[in-house]
Amino acid sequence: MLTASVTVDPAFTVGPVRPRTFGSFVEHLGRCVYTGIHEPGHPTADADGFRGDVLELTRELGVTTVRYPGGNFVSGYRWEDGIGPVDQRPRRLDLAWHSTEPNWVGVDEFVRWCRSAGVEPMMAVNLGTRGVQDALDLLEYCNGTSDTHFANLRRANGSEQPHGIRMWCLGNEMDGPWQIGHKTAEEYGRLAAETARAMRMVDPDLELVACGSSSSVMPTFGSWEHMVLTEAYEHVDFVSAHVYYYEEDGDLGSFLASAVNMDHFIESVVATADAVRAAGKHDKRIAISFDEWNVWYQKRAESKTPEGDDWPVAPVLLEDKYNVADAVVVGNLLISLLRHTDRVHAASQAQLVNVIAPIMTEPGGRTWRQTIFHPFALTARHAKGSVLRVALETPTYDTAKYGEAGVVDAVATHDAETGEVVVLVVNRSTSDEVALEVGLRGLGGMRFVEALTLSHPDHTWAATADDADTVLPQPNESAGLEGERLSVTLPPVSWSILRLAPEEGASQD
Ligand code: AHR
What we know:
Structural class: alpha/beta
Number of strands: 26
Mean pLDDT: 97
Radius of gyration: 23 Å
Helix content: 10-25%
Oligomer: single chain
CATH class of the largest domain: Alpha Beta
Shape: globular
Number of helices: 10
Bound molecules: alpha-L-arabinofuranose
């Protein structure tokens, strides 16, 4: 058995746990919207046609913000197609996903869905085929409070109150040659700056996200962020980051170390943003919106878009089936996002339903939780207060993709109000258990609340509609607290959450 230790001290804070770290993403792609969140006629559907079973699982997942309507889709989207009487809305070709968009759901329905789900909408504007004026029109339609054309149109369409959307993405993945209206960094940086400047004339308090790179393996990674921020620094609050190249392609050890790469990605974007800050003599710091991240098996048939004359409505697309190892990686990516809470101020797992998603549905039928649902839901529910920098002693192993990686990775949170401490930890070993000791310093008398571990001797086990429960996070019976030391055995390829609280009557000072 391997051994490792984590020391937790509430004095070593990185920053607050930010609710927006637990964001998600709904794109008009495949069955994410139609037969995903929306299916009139489904036995659980509400008056807007939104599936109640999906709403319930969305709440259980603990999602806080939802980015909409894309994704690649937004770069060809005319938002006004999705407003007004549903039976009069046009059907359009969606070039991004070679599909037909019926526009049964648009911004007003989406915002109503957000209210039901208890999540904050995060809107993306089309800077692919469109520009400043359309962004302003959409902003006025959503948030306008005056007696003006688009605000009145929203009222006439049944939304008397403004939608009050605070966070806006200025386009999507504009660095990607696959993007409709793809641009060079100079072209996009200017357009993002001008769009942001105009949107702030309407409302200076909007929170605006400039597109960063579609991944850190883009040839323009680094120089793209540098140029875009050189143009737009004073006008935006966030630069985005996206990553999808984490997949198990026969090298499980590398796959399990994916968070090493996410750490490096985040730190590279921070360094680039801070270099622009220094050169431009800016005061403020730019935060990262990691608004698309997940495991995605892009080369599998599931991700093949329709072709030729086939332009289906809501085809089965990107419906990856996630296994136990995928869930361990997703849990570890959340550890990475939390560890960088000083600079990652928002994140959206892509996507919410059916499309590379924690929640799956059958049209007209059942819904179920994929394996990746569990680490997300437990982290979102229990990680509260401040993120703590932990001192970690772990054996390491060599990976082909990411070099030397720790066998164990961990982060902790401390809620000063309740005194609760949460340790999130993975064992990346493919063969060995790890005996982990968690040292608790400066916390006073603590009691053990629970230790839950997600693992299975067969790490390829995946949930289905018929069996979503064989592998769930289970109480880890090896866990025990003695004085200031929690001991627990972590099985190979596992993700765990360890929870502690102050002893009854212990002071929280
Ligand atoms: O999430 C799926 C797609 O991945 C999004 O549409 C795009 O932004 C990214 O490339």
